[in-house]
Amino acid sequence: MTMLAPWALTLAAGLAIAVPVHAHEVVGTGPNGGRVTDAGKYHVELVAKDATVDVYLTDVDTKPVPAAGFKGTAILVVDGKPARVALTPADGSRLSGKADVPLKPNPKGAVQLTAPDGTSASGKFN
Amino acid sequence: MSIRFAAAFSATLLAAVVLAGPAHAHGGHDHGAPPTPVSNSIAPRGEALSDAFELTAVPRDGKLTFYLDRFRTNEPVRGAAIEVETPEGPRTATETADAAYMLPAPWVAKPGNHDLLVTVTAGDVTDVLTVSLNVPDARAAAPGAAMAQPSPTQDALTAASTIVGGLKDRLVAKDPVLVATAAAAFLLGMLVVVVARGRRGVPAVALIAIAITLTLGTAAFAHGDEDHGKPAPAMPPVQGAALIAPSEATTDLAQRLPDGSIFVPKPTQRLLVLRTTMTEAGTFRRTVELPGRVIPDPNASGVVQSSVGGRVSPPPSGVFPRLGTKVRKGDVLAYVTQPVQAVDVSDMRQRQGELDQQIGIVERRVERFKKLSVTGAVAQTQLDDAQSELTGLRDRRAALDRVRLEPETLIAPVDGIVAQAAAVSGQMATPGAMVFQIIDPARLWVEALSFDALTAAQDATARLADGRSLTLAYQGSGFADRNQAIPVQFAVKGDTSGLRVGQFVTVLAGTDAEQNGLALPRSSVVRSGNGQDIVYEHTTAERFEARPVRVVPLDGTRVLVAEGVGPGKRIVTLGAELLDQVR
């Protein structure tokens, strides 16, 4: 016991730390003033103004991800009706699209992204 | 010895601080996929929630089946429009007969992660849901199954190695700083122990320890970010499931999972008619059940009685009102003609003759006076007196006739319908006998016998034998004992159709005692094998978990959950006992 106890304690501490942090929803405000949510391995920031929908793409470290090669679709609920907005890469990390109807400042909806490698990811805005 | 322990503790603490650093510094969140559960015998599926809907997507044979339910009640939603953003563009799923929605989706056969955007419109509610479908690679799954059939010890080892592997994964994949931190902390711990055994240079060691901790800790904190997109660690292999060859077609069967939760696929949920309710904390009055009886409202009902004995005859319409006939207040329902006794008849004849005689005499006198008064032989006053006498005599004669002819009319005292009728033409009615009972069917009361003193103005409900319930408004209670209980009267509020006077009902009335908790229907609580009361919580779309609860009775239909579940949980209210049978 005399020799074992310290090592056992050390080991126990190591195991205790190994318990991973729990997952949770993310909602926040991004650098462009929009709401941020998770979409697969990316973070997306949704900025809706009038009929224009801008989606900014960032990665793990909230570093911008070049939007080139990405495809996207946003479906936003306007006055109880869904509005489908196709998103195309614009400058930098931005994907942009135009809706048929003017949007409210913080619409409910979701964004789906297809990366250049074909994987898809989606994020929900409540 | 104490120093050795102190050293061990400091090493532990050091390791804890250094390793825990990144975890605390982790300012964000995990981007892990939702736990892909269950066993190999269950087809892959995806689900999504919103505050209105619960959507489950099951890919099978190149088709995608969506099951849409209400989030709170688990009721299938019919007639909704489901539009899906697929890799081939937007597509609309068609509704099938069993309230599912089908979408041909050949692309779903491709293994990997499919993220779908589903727009649901049901009635005036529109929701956009994101569904993540993880279709496993059939070939990749095969080797895993080849090493199947592990013994229980192997099982435990596998589980342990998975946890350790997860940590290793996390450490290796994360960044070298973290690994270095962990390693340094470990070495430091060793160093401390070694030095402590020598019982030398303890302050120096402490200094070094602090210095290293600060350096490494700062480095760890500098990585202020989160863990992204790591595939969720595979579930520990399930022994039962491992026995099933993965090549077999996956059949979705309701089953009890190794963690004790119950997996019930959506089609089975619909067969079992599983319904849920959202728990809400509240204050409830304890209620008592009282035996009661429907009575007519005393202000809207009446009886029709004859005040005299006599022969009953129909009203002018020629027919007596039948049972159920609508009558208005003042309607003539029947006549009662008094019979005239023989002695009375002779008496009346005598009087009649006398009057007729007198009328004859006075008539002649009036004639004579009329002629003479013109000449002035008779005073005008004498003529007037004679005329008044004649009028008086005629009135008396007429009244005598009327008394013989006029029967008593029986009239309806209130508006309503004829509830009882005892009139037969020609029947002799006795004085005070009830001929008709009139009741307003829209105004009924309930009289209950209570053994407790009820709170005044306390509303109650009544339950009928067929399960219907009535809302009652308290009217008053007696003060005199009847069968060692107090009669309490309530007015029935709302629809009274189908009720009849005298019908027995069960009255549920509140008492003064108040209780706090969550009210659930009695049917949601089932008794588990060990005799414990449990309820089933609907945790995810197709999973139910048993929760032991402590319940106290509330009223006839509900129980109060005092402990075991909190508010805001979806608890199965219908079909809980069927769920309990799932093995």
TrEMBL record, chain A:
Keywords: Signal
Name recorded for this polypeptide: DUF4198 domain-containing protein
Signal sequence extent: 1-23
Region feature (Disordered): 89-126
Key word Signal present: yes
Compositional bias of kind Polar residues: 117-126
Source taxon at top rank: Bacteria
Automatic annotation (TrEMBL), chain B:
Record InterPro entries: MFP_Cation_Efflux, RND_pump_MFP
Organism lineage string: Bacteria, Pseudomonadati, Pseudomonadota, Alphaproteobacteria, Hyphomicrobiales
Keywords: Membrane, Signal, Transmembrane, Transmembrane helix, Transport
Transmembrane segment boundaries: 177-195, 202-222
Recorded family membership: Belongs to the membrane fusion protein (MFP) (TC 8.A.1) family.
Species name: Methylobacterium iners
Keyword Cell inner membrane in annotation: no
Signal peptide interval: 1-25
Protein name: Multidrug resistance protein MdtA
Superkingdom assignment: Bacteria
PANTHER family the record matches: CATION EFFLUX SYSTEM PROTEIN CUSB, SLR6042 PROTEIN
SUPFAM superfamilies associated with the record: HlyD-like secretion proteins
